[in-house]
Amino acid sequence: MSAQRIVLFDLGNVLVRINIRNFWKTLGLEQPDGALVHRDEIIPFTRNFESGNRTKEDFLRELQLLFRERFSDHELEEAFNSILLHTIRGMDDLVRRVSSVCLTGLVSNTNALHYDSTVARWNIVQLLPRHYLSFKLHAMKPDEAYYHAVLQDLQCDPEQIVFIDDLEKNVKGAMRAGMQGVQFKSVRGLEQKLKALQIL
């Protein structure tokens, strides 16, 4: 009997479409004197949040201080979650089909706010039994530690895993760890690739 295949899906721009500009738009800060002044400062805040080094309360407080308490926690949370737009058409069906023939999971650089919002809004992530979340693993793609944590949990040969991500650097990280990497560009393209890999 051949070894079980495992297919892992990224979240942002694979299962759910995201648009970072929506954060600024929701806060009414689309102009250069609004958004651009703070954009570079928010990146390390978000990275710390997504790597599990900040709680939700810590993160919102950092944003409060950055914006000089111009916005409430509710407004900041709402703006941050507005980045998540909608599920990508066709991915629900594809995930269902893949999940019916092999073990599947979620592999995402994400944070508590975005993860909770995604689970509450869409069923697609509930189709995936294993969730490997950067803020819980305290490691982020494409760092080696992230892929190591996934392999430690799955206890399988790396080549059994098909790792799907929209970012080339994350796919290359998976391949360096011995997994089969697939860069997501379209639902149709992914379906064809999974057929070529004899998963569908």
Q: Which structural class matches the secondary elements? A: alpha/beta
Query: How many distinct beta strands?
Result: 7
Q: How confident overall, as mean pLDDT?
A: 94
Count the domains.
2
**What percentage of residues falls in helices of 4 or more residues?**
40-55%
Q: Mind telling me the CATH class of the largest domain? A: Alpha Beta
What is the number of helices? 10
Low-confidence stretches: none
Q: Tell me, briefly, the overall form.
A: globular
Strand line-up across the major sheet: 5-4-1-6-7
Written overview of the protein:
This protein has 10 helices and 7 strands. The mean pLDDT is 94. The chain has 200 residues and is of the alpha/beta class. Helix content is 48%, strand content 15%. Strands 5-4-1-6-7 form a 5-stranded parallel sheet, sandwiched between helices. The chain has a two-stranded antiparallel sheet with strand order 2-3. The protein folds into 2 domains: 6-17 and 87-196, Rossmann fold, CATH 3.40.50.1000; 20-82. The two termini are 18 Å apart.
Brief account:
This protein is α/β, with parallel strands linked by helices and 200 residues long.
Topology:
Layout: E1 6-9, E2 16-18, H1 21-27, H2 35-50, H3 56-66, H4 73-81, E3 84-87, H5 91-99, E4 103-108, H6 112-121, E5 130-133, H7 134-137, H8 144-154, E6 161-165, H9 168-176, E7 180-183, H10 187-196
Parallel strand pairs: 1-4, 1-6, 4-5, 6-7
Antiparallel strand pairs: 2-3
Helix pairs in contact: 1-4, 2-3
Considering the chains and any ligands shown, give keywords for the structure.
about 200 residues; alpha/beta; Rossmann fold; 5-stranded parallel beta sheet; two-stranded antiparallel sheet; 10 helices; globular
